[in-house]
């Protein structure tokens, strides 16, 4: 099993004591990276929920390295991460959102302060709590509650280990754990604006805070070891203010010697302040929204963590980027907003993930109108392609959105569709279709052809590439589709080759909603809303109208077993399986289908289904779903009974694909959720995943609105015309020949039926 694409930015990372390793919270694990190479060394795997904190123990040395972790599973774990080896588990029985460990030389014991979520609290509106745990107790007691808040807040520990605090609205609550009292003494600092971040000075009782307006405030001690507070905006005696940022401060940290203060905002701007003089210096802009900024024990090394799932290792004090640890960048903000699911005439307008099954390379549409290429098998970033730019002349009201991306089977060609429109009005936007060719030397794509308004002013609803030749099809909401081919001039380099229109087709001016080529590229299946058609792509001829669904079809896919899989959306969603030998509906389920994955040379196929949050059936079958919101169903092509079922999270907006792995004889199944986290596994023999242990009848009864429908099987001898469709190419015979064979077979069948009904007359 291969897991990847995890979010590296949910919590602040930590350097090892020797500054040679960087520990990152990645979903349910902690990933340990080499600072020298930027490659993952090992991972700490035992938590059953997302890890929220990782803390390197100060007692670590060159031979043994310890760290503490906390998780939403309610457990604190201590590890020897150089091995790696789990040493001990402490269970608080409450989801932990933040953890700090007090150094032994300060507390003279093993004391943990955690920010937990407790819905059993007496105060109905205060679910967040700061609790103190003595980890030397066995069993672990419930802990002492220091404070209650509306929700859990992150805890910040001072470098000396004597203070920790949390910011809550316009206040900062600080506790002095070095006091002689059993419970730490609390001090509260007040401000007039919302405080977004704060940091402790490394060796003095000084605290810096940033607020939502962009100001940086400095509190100093009053000589007796306690912080003073500012009551009003004009009170400057107890608080020094640095004012330069125009947006809220998101990162704040002191240099290791405490002489400088670094502040940054979400836009990526960094400023360094001299505490003694208040002078500032602008630093190179990182270019991505900033989340965390940490120093290592090496004064020349730091790290900045950005919102786009990138961790930059910086050389100090120049802030030069030494190397970058890149995960899969999150989806564009539009995908989580209304634009992600904007539909025109029941047509989905965003298809922003494509996977090349032969190489395991995936293309993800990300922020700033880019496509990121990522190797799923190696969990490694390859490159980024700038698809388009937002021109200054467009203005703020004009939106630019990459609406579709598709990769060829060998990864040599990529196609993208983009739209420029005002507000959410796709119908009046400018649409561009682009073809790209892969350049091996630079490991990225180069633009080959740009086609503006390929379907007049209609939006492109999907793109499909032919797996066997340089051919593509684009479909639109205007009711037409176009087949594109690459110029065959052998003297042209791939970068200079042009794509031209080979043919145009339509069906009764009905919007085309789905398109897919057969495995060998000889056939093209199209959906005109509810009608399924088979076309000859080279001749651009309609071969057959397969059938009609009950709702608009959004996904089509050929299987190696002679079936066509269709997924219908709308008020009556359906998964339907059509037999290409008879052009009849084989069976169907009433399911919400998000994605389909089929094998080229096998009848196996998998579907991703999602579950409506408000569905009463889901709520009443919590023992089946266990907090999951979707499922993957694997079929072997023999019938409607799935051979395996896996429940998954973040299914809506997810993607499925079979991926070939050279190390295995059978392909892996890749599932990418809507947050771009993924897993690759062997669907036929992987025992680590929940498979057909779920009773499929119970499961399907919970997620299906309607019982499955199957057709009655017929003997091959009754349908001699079926032999005309044998072969992997699905080359259909001329229609007159097809009709003659069809009617001849039907006449023979009727004669046999009459003979069966009147045996006595024929026997005489």
TrEMBL record:
WD repeats lie at residues 44-89, 188-220, 242-283. Its main location: nucleus. It is found in: Nucleus, Nucleolus. The keyword Repeat applies. Pfam families: Beta-prop_WDR75_1st, Beta-prop_WDR75_2nd. PROSITE patterns: WD_REPEATS_1, WD_REPEATS_2. Keywords: Nucleus, Repeat, Ribosome biogenesis, rRNA processing, WD repeat. Residues 370-617 form the WD repeat-containing protein 75 second beta-propeller domain. The keyword Transcription regulation does not apply. This is WD40 repeat. It comes from Arabidopsis suecica. The lineage of its organism: Eukaryota, Viridiplantae, Streptophyta, Embryophyta, Tracheophyta.
């Amino acid at each position: 099993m291969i897991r990847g694409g995890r979010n590296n930015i949910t919590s602040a990372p930590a350097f090892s004591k020797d500054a040679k390793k960087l520990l990152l919270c990645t979903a349910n694990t902690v990933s340990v990276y080499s600072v020298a190479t930027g490659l993952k060394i090992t991972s700490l795997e035992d938590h059953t929920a997302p890890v929220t904190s990782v803390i390197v123990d100060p007692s670590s040395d060159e031979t043994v390295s310890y760290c503490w972790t906390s998780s939403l599973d309610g457990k604190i774990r201590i590890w020897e991460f150089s091995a790696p080896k789990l040493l001990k588990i402490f269970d608080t029985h409450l989801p932990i959102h933040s953890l700090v460990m007090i150094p032994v030389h300060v507390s003279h014991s093993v004391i943990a302060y955690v920010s937990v979520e407790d819905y059993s609290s007496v105060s109905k509106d205060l679910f967040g709590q700061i609790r103190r745990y003595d980890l030397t107790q066995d069993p672990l007691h419930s802990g002492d509650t220091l404070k209650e808040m509306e929700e859990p807040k992150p805890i910040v520990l001072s470098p000396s280990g004597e203070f920790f605090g949390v910011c809550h609205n316009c206040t900062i609550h600080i506790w002095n754990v070095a006091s002689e009292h059993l419970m730490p003494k609390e001090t509260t600092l007040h401000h007039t604006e919302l405080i977004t971040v704060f940091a402790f000075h490394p060796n003095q009782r000084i605290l810096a805070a940033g607020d939502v307006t962009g100001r940086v405030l400095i509190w100093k001690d009053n000589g007796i070891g306690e912080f003073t507070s500012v009551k009003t905006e004009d009170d400057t005696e107890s608080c020094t203010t640095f004012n330069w940022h125009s947006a809220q401060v998101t990162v704040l940290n002191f240099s290791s010697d405490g002489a400088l203060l670094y502040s940054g905002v979400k836009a990526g701007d960094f400023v360094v302040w001299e505490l003694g003089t208040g002078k500032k210096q602008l630093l190179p802009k990182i270019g991505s929204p900033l989340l965390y900024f940490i120093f290592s024990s090496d004064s020349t090394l730091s790290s900045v963590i950005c919102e786009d799932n990138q961790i930059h290792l910086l050389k100090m004090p120049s802030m030069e980027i030494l190397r970058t640890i890149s995960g899969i960048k999150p989806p564009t903000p539009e995908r989580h907003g209304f634009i992600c699911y904007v539909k025109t005439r029941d047509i989905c307008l965003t298809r922003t993930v494509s996977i090349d099954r032969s190489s395991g390379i995936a293309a993800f549409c990300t922020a700033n109108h880019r496509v990121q290429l990522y190797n799923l098998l190696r969990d490694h970033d390859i490159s980024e392609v700038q698809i388009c730019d937002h021109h200054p002349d467009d203005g703020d009201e004009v939106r630019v959105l990459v609406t579709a991306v598709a990769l060829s089977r060998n990864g040599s060609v990529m196609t993208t569709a983009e739209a420029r429109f005002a507000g959410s009005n796709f119908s009046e936007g400018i649409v561009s279709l682009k073809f790209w060719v892969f350049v091996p030397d630079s490991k990225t794509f180069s633009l080959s052809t740009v086609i503006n308004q390929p379907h007049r002013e209609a939006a492109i609803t999907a793109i499909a590439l032919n797996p066997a030749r340089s051919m593509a099809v684009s479909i639109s909401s205007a009711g037409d589709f176009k087949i594109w081919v690459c110029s065959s001039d052998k003297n042209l380099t791939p970068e200079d080759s042009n794509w031209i229109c080979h043919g145009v087709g339509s069906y009764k001016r009905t919007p085309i909603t789905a398109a897919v080529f057969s495995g060998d590229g000889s056939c093209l299946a199209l959906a005109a809303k509810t009608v399924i058609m088979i076309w000859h792509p080279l001749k651009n001829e309609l071969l057959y109208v397969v059938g009609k669904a009950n709702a608009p079809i959004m996904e089509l896919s050929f299987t190696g077993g002679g079936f066509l899989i269709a997924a219908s959306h709308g008020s009556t969603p359906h998964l339907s399986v059509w037999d290409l030998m008879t052009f009849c509906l084989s069976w169907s389920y009433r399911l919400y289908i998000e994605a389909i994955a089929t094998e080229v040379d096998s009848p196996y196929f998998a579907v991703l289904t999602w579950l409506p949050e408000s569905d009463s059936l889901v709520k009443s079958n919590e023992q089946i779903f266990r907090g999951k919101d979707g499922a993957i169903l694997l079929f072997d092509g023999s019938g409607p009974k799935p051979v395996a079922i896996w429940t998954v999270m973040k299914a809506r907006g997810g993607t499925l694909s079979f991926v070939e792995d050279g190390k295995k004889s059978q392909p892996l199944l890749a599932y990418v959720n809507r947050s771009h986290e993924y897993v690759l596994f062997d669907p036929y023999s992987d025992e680590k995943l929940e498979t057909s242990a779920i009773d499929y009848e119970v499961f399907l009864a919970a997620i299906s609105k309607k019982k499955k429908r199957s057709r009655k099987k017929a003997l091959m001898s009754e349908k001699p015309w079926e032999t005309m469709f044998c072969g992997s190419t699905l080359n259909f015979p001329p229609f007159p020949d097809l009709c003659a064979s069809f009617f001849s077979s039907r006449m023979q069948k009727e004669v046999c039926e009459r003979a069966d009904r009147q045996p006595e007359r024929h026997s005489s």
